[in-house]
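Sync notes, pocket subgroup
Present: LS, DG
LS reminded everyone that the earlier model was apo-only. Rerun requested with zinc ion included. Inputs:
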Amino acid sequence: MPLTEHGRARKQQFHDRLGILHHRTLHHKLKERFPAAFNTRWTRRHWVHASLFATLGALVATIIPGFSAQLEPQTRLHATLPLSLPPLTVRAPNAAHPGHQWEVVQVRAGQTLGALFDSMGVSTQVMHQILEQPGNREPLSRLRPGAELAFALGDDGQLEGFRFDRSPTERVELTLAGGRIHEKVLERATTTRVAVASAEIEHSLYAAGRKAGLSPASIAVMTDEIFKYDIDFKDVQRGDRFSAVVEEVWREGERIGGGRILAASFTTNGKTYTGVRFEHEGKIGYYTPDGRPLKKSFIRMPIPYARLSSKFGARHHPVLGKMRMHKGVDYAATTGTPIMAAGDAKVQFVGQQRGYGNVVILDHGKGHTTLYAHMSRFGKIRKGQSVSQGTVIGYVGSTGLATGPHLHYEFRVNGQHRNPLSVTMPPPEPLKGEALAAFRAQTAPTLARIESMEKLLYASASKPDQAEGKRG
Ligand SMILES: [Zn+2]
């Protein structure tokens, strides 16, 4: 970076920092003025989340002058801080309908809709009229405690307007006049924020993830998608840690949806794994920072929760009663256990074969095929169809020559049987050329956030003040 540009960047960073300070001050001021808006809308989870960033903000602000070389990533992290505060909602008469004076009521635990309407002095008849409007009954009959309904009552106490949230994105506003109901659907405003969450595992990954503000869905993306090929989460220990850059959608102070993970790093057993989200040829995937897919060409076991019951090689055949080469491996599992495609493939064969019973053969290209036998039934697949890794292709059974329900799994390379447990799998293709350039440009800021977060929290984890900071 040329010096002048660097100077400009630093100046910008100072402005950003000032902006954050301003934001935080503003936040306090608003809190003083509208305590109700904050207290009723912020759950403990939000505070935990926000306080983590507030503490980090203080840390960053203290540390930054010390190392200018790291200013850029620090600032990126920094720039996300104010975004973690939910937007302020102030209850006021709806500006769009100056005639309506809305009264907002929260549903209490155990309260029926009838009781709520009754408490507002609205007749059961009018309530039923509202429920009979198409699309209203279902969302109104499963309102959760804390959900908000708004009533607009006329001077004579008659219901003139009723407002509720039909879905996370839709707000319905009904106007009642002369026995008729006019419906207006408003889009509920949402904001997208990027936040960095990080935690060290004390009891469980789940607990640490929740404490850092991640949704259960985001935690599952880390374990079942990003790192499932590299980390055995059964072995995760106290002291292991993760950081994740999460894109969250918020609406009126509440996080909706799981939160999309843009990048994550996981450190276990002294080794750090990093995955960053990238869309390539219409497919979303997670890649290493140098552009290699984290997804392996083949999963280790095409069946979840199964026991290896017979290995590859010469054995005494249990049904034929003589020595036979076992050309695959067997996994014992209960009938009906789903069987997954071990890798992206074209379906080469679906049907019956002697001995194998119901069998599926998948062609993975480059001379690699896999075979799945003794199925009780097939998944929704047909010959010639493309399936992606993990697609359910059938279910465990004991059709053909089998003593009990199990999956017989074969792996062939150019027609030759190989031991699926030891064969060297072809590595997935790394990104190249333009795709790699695009990947680098797009993922660098996200990766920098992870890096700065990790440096900030764990580079000198022994320091008591920093150890305090990461708990937020
Ligand atoms: Zn077998």
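DG: The longest helix spans residues 3-33.
LS: Residues 310, 326, 328, 330, 408 surround zinc ion (CB under 6 Å).
Action: DG to write up.
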